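Schema walk-through. Below, the input block comes first and the output block second. Nothing else is stored per chain. Lengths vary across the set, and this one has 218 residues.
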Amino acid sequence: MGKFKPGPMGVVRGLIDTIVASKWKDTYVVKGRPTRSNKPATLQQAEQRLRFGLVTGLMKRLRYIITVGYQNSGKNLTPMNAASQYHLANAVTGIYPDYLLDFTKLKISNGNESSLDEAWLPKVTAGAGATVTVSWEVSKYPGKTSSGTDKITILFYDVEKDKFITLESAATRSELTKTEELPEVYVGDSLHCYIMMVSADQKRVSGSQYLGLVKILA
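--- output ---
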């Protein structure tokens, strides 16, 4: 793979004879045109493709939340690539060809040295009337980068319906609780719950927290 600078005719992208020109982050690159192989995939290749397919499918469904949660992954990784690397290494379980995603290992954000504080002692509970409540406490050891105006993002994954429910900016850190009334169609379903804190300017996030599995009550 090589690099190039746009010339007087502007930026060139796409297929040019046997090379492909494209832009990756802020750099323009050229690489050889990929060729199809007639060789059947090895077992290792088949395993990798299946694992990769599971993770990329998950990432596409969570693209927006991943873009926010993994925004500080460094110059060499896009948020989607960083999240894919984590989930490929940690969230795929089972034996080929029966791979599954382990939703207890799902992470919607990755913390680093400039991260916000995570929610302090968070928990999720289900109540009557298809309500679900996420609550947390005032931290005894508040970080310098965190604030009461930080907003909590909540993600639910419905096991039975294979569906995600996202609550963006659901409450501020200082509010300490968020109750959501779900439609009756969710009664009886089991939901995994995940949270992260996001700064008011959306430039910093906390680490991802998994709160467990709750069953929605009538």
